[in-house]
Amino acid sequence: MRVMGVDPGLTRCGLSLVEGGTGRSVVALDVDVVRTPADLELAERLLRIADAAEYWMDTHKPAVVAIERVFAQHNVRTAMGTAQAGGVVALAAARRGIGVSFHTPSQVKAAVTGNGSADKAQVTTMVTRILGLQTKPTPADAADALALAICHCWRAPMLERMAYAEAAAAEQRKRYEARLRQVRKARKEAGTR
């Protein structure tokens, strides 16, 4: 499975591409960071991020885009910019029929390091080790984008199994309720005779 990982941000937006193999095997294919100057208008900054993401999607043809979910940040302005950057990337993917999955920072950290509250240095170290890279990806946005893609590769099979199980349970419940209605109807009809 080819996964594009996105660590959204207005100033720096990390983009990565990994190929997930069998088991926990993942290979890094590309990584970059899109930078936009703070003195540009917001719309222009978002356009630059969208253009870069669209280029990546059209060039690399990912099966899915994994984006960091804005979970909670103390700085509302930063959170808004992060959400807007993630939104334009999600929109670009949706327009291409590419699936989008959101992962919280703690989910990504837990998947990559085993600790949902790991710091950036720990994430970078584990990403470097997992992918067998010679040097650590920099800046941290690049490592975070790779971590998002790795997280999705490892979590996607579990998420699919859970969705299948939930759908099967819902179908079973639907059949049970239909059968229950039939039994009640039959009893009611038998009682009126």
Commentary on this structure:
- The chain is 58% helix and 18% strand.
- By secondary structure, it is an alpha/beta fold.
- It has a five-stranded mixed beta sheet, with helices on both faces.
- A hairpin with a 5-residue loop joins strand 2 (12-20) and strand 3 (26-35).
- The longest helix has 52 residues, at 140-191.
Strand and helix layout:
Layout: E1 2-7, E2 12-20, E3 26-35, H1 42-60, E4 64-68, H2 76-95, E5 99-103, H3 105-113, H4 120-131, H5 140-191
Parallel strand pairs: 1-4, 4-5
Antiparallel strand pairs: 1-2, 2-3
Helix pairs in contact: 1-2, 3-5, 4-5
Which range does the strand content fall in? Answer: 15-25%
Low-confidence stretches: none
Choose one word for the global shape. elongated
Order of helices and strands: EEEHEHEHHH
- Give me the secondary-structure category: alpha/beta
- Quote the average pLDDT: 91
* Count of domains: 1
**Helix content class:** 55-70%
Strand order of the largest sheet: 3-2-1-4-5
The helix tally amounts to 5
Radius of gyration: 22 Å
Give the CATH superfamily.
Answer: Ribonuclease H-like superfamily/Ribonuclease H
CATH classification class: Alpha Beta
CATH architecture: 2-Layer Sandwich
The CATH topology comes to Nucleotidyltransferase, domain 5
Largest sheet: 5 strands, mixed
**Strand runs, count:** 5
Distance from first to last alpha carbon: 62 Å
